[in-house]
Write a structure and sequence with these properties.
Layout lengths: L17 H29 L2 H25 L5 H31 L5 H33 L5 H29 L21
Helix pairs in contact: 1-2, 1-3, 2-3, 2-5, 3-4, 3-5, 4-5
Amino acid sequence: MQKAVPDIKFVSVESVGPKVSGELIQTAAIAVVLAIGAVLVYIWLRFEWQFALGAVAALVHDVVLTIGIFSELQIEFDLAIIAALLTIVGYSLNDTVVVFDRVRENLRKYKKKPLAEVLNISINETLSRTVMTSVTTLLALISLYVLGGDVIRGFVFAMIWGVIVGTYSSVFVASTILLYLGVKRDWTKTNDGGGQYANIDA
């Protein structure tokens, strides 16, 4: 057996106290709220306020479920997880905008069909793209989770969970909120279904 070396010195020892943890939670909450607020404004300008509320409801759903699974499994919550939450917001928003863009196109195309039927058509038309994007992303994330080591495991786990819930929330949650709120379908006065920025390319 090797003997312990007596001249080893610990240069510094750091620990995270409750004050720092409280500041971390406050900073995380502010970052997520600002991100969701920016999303609300962007979708409102690009589409209509009904679309904006549907997208924000889906984003809040994703963030709450992600925080909930970390709380339930008692996984350490650090700065990497905050970055994962903001990444999840962006990923879910991208899926939601793709679905909503097709909804807006089909609302002009099928002016006589009920909103529920238009939503169903739009979701079916974008479903293959949504599933393929999510599956390929999950393949990369699962590889990182298995081979990446403990340093990024928390971040990758949050991303895996976020991609799963973000995929179905953009299809089911956002569209359901839009169906509940209804949407403007009389575009006789304007050529577009959104505000002044409605024709800006994504």
